Amino acid sequence: MPTFLPTTQKELHSLGWDQLDVILITGDSYIDSPFIGVAVIGKVLQQAGFKVGIIAQPDYQSEVDITRLGEPRLFWGVTAGSIDSMIANYTATGRPRRADDYTPGGRNTKRPNRATLVYANLIRRYFKDTVPIVLGGVEASLRRIAHYDFWTDSVRRSILFDAKADYLLYGMAERSVVDLAQALNTGEDPTSLRGLCYIAKQAPSGYLTLPAFERVAEDHDAFIEMFHRFYQNNDPLSATGLAQKHGDRYLVHNPPTPNLSTAELDAVYALSYARAQHPYYETQGSVKALETIRFSIPTHRGCYGECNFCAIAVHEGRTVRWRSQDSILAEAREIANLPDFNGYIYDLSGPTANMYGFECPIKLRRGPCLDKNCVYPETCPVLPVDHKIQTDLLHKLRQVKGVKKVFVGSGLRYDLILSDEKHGEAYLKELVSHHTSGQLKVAPEHTQPDVLARMRKPGLDKLLAFKQRFDALSDEVKKKQFLSYYLIAAYPGCTLEDMHALKRFASQKLGILPEQVQVFTPTPSTYASVMYHTEKDPFTGEPLYVEKNPAGKKRQKEVITGSGKPPQRHRRGKAK
Ligand code: SF4
Fold first, then answer.
1. CATH homologous superfamily, domain 9-198
2. Res. 102: pLDDT tops 50
C-alpha cells in the first residue's frame, strides 16, 4: 500500500519520529506521483534511509506552514515546483494566469513569484542559523548561472546568490541529493559533489572560468560567450567544472552527476507512489494535473532534439536514458489494478515520445559532439534510430489485462520516424492504428525556413512527408484522425510577414486553420533566450529582428488565431 511522506506533526508522530532529516518545500501541491520531482526526490531519500517530510505551497506571509514540521536535522530542500514560477504565474505577454494545474481547486493563488527565493527567505525568517538550504527543481536549475530574465528584462545573478541559500542541485537530482544527504549526515564537506553548485571565495583549480556576472550583464557578446561555455559543459562524461565571478565571490558549478542507468531508473520508478494528492491538500480541492499524470507512464529522460527554445537539454541532458520494458510493464499492471482505472493510459511519455530505447554509442562513451547535433539539420548517421523497440513496448502494453488503450500524448519527432527506414513505417502504423486519440500532436513550431533554422527544427519537406504517411496510413486502417500542430509566434527572427506566410502554408499545404499557437516565452538558459536578449544569432553573430513589444507579439499570434479563438479546423485533402 503506497504511503505519502508526512506533511503534519500528527503524521510524523504516527510514524514514531520526532524530527525529520530533510524537509522539502514545494510550490506545487503534494502530488505523490513519479511525474512530480519533489515526490520522487522525497521517496528516493526515504529509500536511502532518511526521514523526509513535505510542506507544499506554504503560506509565505506567516510562520504557520513553514514551522509545521519543525526544523530538519540535515537540510531543507526548496523547489518552486514542476514549472518556473514566473512561467506558471504569467503569460508570454505579461498577463497574470488565473489557473494553476498544480494547485488544489485550480485557482492560481498559492505560488508566489520567484517561489524559490520566497521559500528560502521564509525559512531564514523563522529559523535563524538553520541547517543548509538546498535549491533544486527546474526554476533553480535553469537559473544556476547568470541568466536572462524575461520578466525584468535583465540579466540576473545566479539564483544561489539571490536566495541566500547554501547549495543548489541541478538537473535530475536523485543521485546527487542522496550523495548530499549522506555527506551532511557524516559531517563531510559536500562541495566536491557532482551536480552541485555553491558559493566560494576562490574558483577551484582546473575549473573553467565563465565571464563574470557584471560583465555579461552589460556586454551581449560576453553573455553569448558565457552561454556557449555553459552549454558545452553540461554532460557528465565530458564537462569541466565551471566558475563565475559575482562581485568578489564565485558561483562554483561542479560537473554534472552521472546519468542513471536503466537499472537505477527502474529502481526509482519501482518506489511506491500513491498516484494521488496528499489528503491534507485534497481537502482544499482537486488538482487538474492529476487527471493526466495519474494514469500515465514516464518511459525515458533527456533529449537530443536540442530545439533552441527548450530547456530540456540543459535540465535533463542531451543523452536519452530509458527504463526497461519490464519496469514500464510492471507500472502498467499496477495502474490497471487501481480501482478507478478506466482502461486508458493517457500518455506513454518522455520529453520526445519516440526517443525511447536507442542512443548514440559515441555519445555514451564520451558525451555529445560539440560541433554537430544528433538530429539537425539531418539525423546523424551514427545515431542507431530504431523504433522497433517502442513498437514492441506498445504492443506488449496493449496486452496488459485491464488496459484498453495506450495513448502517446507527448510530442513526436517526425523526422526521426522518417529516418528509420527499417522500422519507422511499422511504428507509425502502430501509432495510427492503436495509439492515437483522434489527433496526433506534432510540433513543427513554424513553417518559414529562417525561423525554423533559428529554432533548430526540421524542414518542411519532412513535415509534409510525415503528414502524407500519416494520412495514408489512417486511410488504410479506416480511421478519421488528424495531426495537431503546435506553433510559436514572435520567436526571435520571426516577423509579421513570417506569420502570414505560416498561415498561408498551413491553409494550403496542411489543410488547417491552426489554433495551437503560443507566443514565444524566453525560458532562462536556452539559446532562444540568448537570441531574445542579445538580438543576435549566437552562432553567427548576425543581428536579429526580435519582436519585443507585447502588442506586436499579440498581432503575430492573431495572424493565425484572429482576435478571438476559432477552433482548429481540418481539411484533409492530400499533402502538396
Ligand atoms: S556522433 Fe552523431 S549521434 Fe553521436 S553524439 Fe555526435 S552528432 Fe549525436
1. Cobalamin-binding domain (3.40.50.280)
2. yes
